[in-house]
TrEMBL record:
InterPro entries: 2Fe-2S_ferredoxin-like_sf, 2Fe-2S_ferredoxin-type, 2Fe2S_fd_BS, 2Fe2S_Ferredoxin, Beta-grasp_dom_sf, DnaJ_domain, J_dom_sf. One of its GO terms (molecular function) is 2 iron, 2 sulfur cluster binding. The keyword Iron applies. This is Ferredoxin Fer. Residues 3-56 form the J domain. PANTHER family: FERREDOXIN (PTHR43112), FERREDOXIN-2, CHLOROPLASTIC (PTHR43112:SF3). Belongs to the 2Fe2S plant-type ferredoxin family. Its cofactor is [2Fe-2S] cluster.
Length: 218
């Protein structure tokens, strides 16, 4: 067994802010894109989830047996694989309904709009899948072209959560800061994500996209 406190490098009495800060640093170091490994990355994520689910008395709740977080076996994943919960929305729907990426209640509106299952829904992505792979492996046909960070055909807009972005990508800093990411080589670094996919239709991404090729699904 390994203590989640040790994994994150925080003291046993670390508060929520300390845990959050430590997690943000450790998850970057542990990510395969930055020299870590998938095993280390998953371990850090499980440690964070364990500590963030403590109740106010510092008792773990995810074990449902009241065990202290220091005793949780991090070699076993409590939810069967550390899946990342992704809620998604097709950008084309925004145009149809007159919604905006900046709408605070965009996903609430989508959840009430009776949209098709390819337009709005939820899927589980495994930690070793890119967001695009996760969508494809669950049967969704999200757009892509190069699959290598050299275009913006696979771009998504992050409404919530974080997606890694390798150094050799084409996304300009200004767009990355606004929340645009590439789904073909972006791996979730948060347990939950809300993303708008198919944003390649946005004018600001026009110069980055590639024309449809033999490997482009849509
Ligand atoms: S498909 Fe070209 S960057 Fe993702």
């Amino acid at each position: 067994m390994v203590s989640p406190f040790d994994v994150l490098g925080v003291d046993d009495d670390a508060d929520e802010a300390d845990v959050e800060r430590a997690y943000r640093e450790r998850v970057k170091e542990a990510h395969p894109d930055t020299g870590g490994s998938m095993e280390e990355f998953q371990l850090v994520r499980r440690a964070y989830r364990s500590l963030s689910e403590r109740d106010l008395n510092g008792v773990a709740t995810n074990g449902s047996d009241g065990t202290d977080p220091a005793d949780i076996d991090l070699t076993e994943d409590a939810d069967g694989g550390g899946s990342i919960h992704v809620e998604f929305l097709d950008y084309e729907v925004l145009a149809d309904y007159g919604w905006s990426l900046d709408d605070d209640d965009l996903f609430r509106k989508a959840s009430h709009a009776n949209l098709g299952e390819a337009e709005y829904g939820r899927l589980l992505v495994q930690p070793d899948e890119s967001l695009l792979e996760g969508a494809e492996n669950r049967g969704f046909g999200w757009p892509f072209s190069c699959r290598g960070g050299a275009c913006a055909n696979c771009a998504v807009y992050l409404v919530e959560g974080e997606l890694s972005q390798p150094a050799n990508h084409i996304m300009p800093d200004a767009l990355a800061e606004r929340g645009f990411r590439l789904s073909c080589n972006g791996y979730p670094v948060s347990d939950e994500l809300k993303v708008v996919f198919n944003v390649k239709h946005l004018p600001e991404l026009d110069d980055l996209i590639l024309p449809p090729g033999p490997f482009t699904r849509r």
